[in-house]
């Protein structure tokens, strides 16, 4: 009898073996929970979590005191509650899925298509954009310029008027000049061409954005949250130049800082295509 009791005592205090897959599973769960909480903090879900915690505490209370009627109601309406939450958080869930799709987890491991080794836009285009922004900043002409990368901006282009003109400082300044037909809205640049003007962009609902920023800045941040584009904003009130990228706003940049940001964007594509070019050649040789 004592031997059996000792066996159960040992079983109770025995530390289970940990496999490498268990550690990997813990890391994956921790990673997912961290990013879900990070996403929730900048959305309406953060305030709803407090309500969820109160409801969960109430359910535990009902479970502890065996309040069967309440537990039956919760059990039967659980699926309905989940559906309602999904409907309420539909914009946030869509944004989260779009961000997940932009991560390009497999693009660095697999190379599809025949990509050419080239820069995203020319040095002339870069200089023309900087010159236009500096000139508009001096006279406090409001501007909103979106520069496309890999993510298509076709849905935003369709909200504006097609231009399809070579990027020049004169063209950009004339578009955003006060009381001109195209000055209201955003300009979209793809490569070395202005493809569309007077485009409507999604406004960011990030609660951390300062109240001093207006609709133009919120639109610039908003499109950078749902696409991989870089947006340049010239304030009509202060004349200051800001850059929005990946949901972050770089305020009050000067011409040198703006040029550096555009250089990074320009060379990023060149470096990526350069790597893919040699990786593809290496696979062919094998």
Automatic annotation (TrEMBL):
Record bears the keyword Zinc: no
Keyword tags: ATP-binding, Cell membrane, Membrane, Nucleotide-binding, Nucleotidyltransferase, Transferase, Transmembrane, Transmembrane helix
Enzyme nomenclature, EC number: 2.7.7.85
Domain called DAC: residue spans: 90-255
Catalytic activity: 2 ATP = 3',3'-c-di-AMP + 2 diphosphate
A Pfam family: DAC
Signal sequence region: none
Gene Ontology BP terms: cAMP biosynthetic process
GO-annotated molecular function: adenylate cyclase activity; ATP binding; diadenylate cyclase activity
Top-rank EC class of the record's enzyme: transferase
PROSITE patterns xref list: DAC
HAMAP family: DacA
Annotated PANTHER family: DIADENYLATE CYCLASE (PTHR34185:SF1)
Family in the record: Belongs to the adenylate cyclase family. DacA/CdaA subfamily.
Description of how the protein assembles with itself and partners: Probably a homodimer.
Protein name: Diadenylate cyclase
Recorded name of the encoding gene: dacA
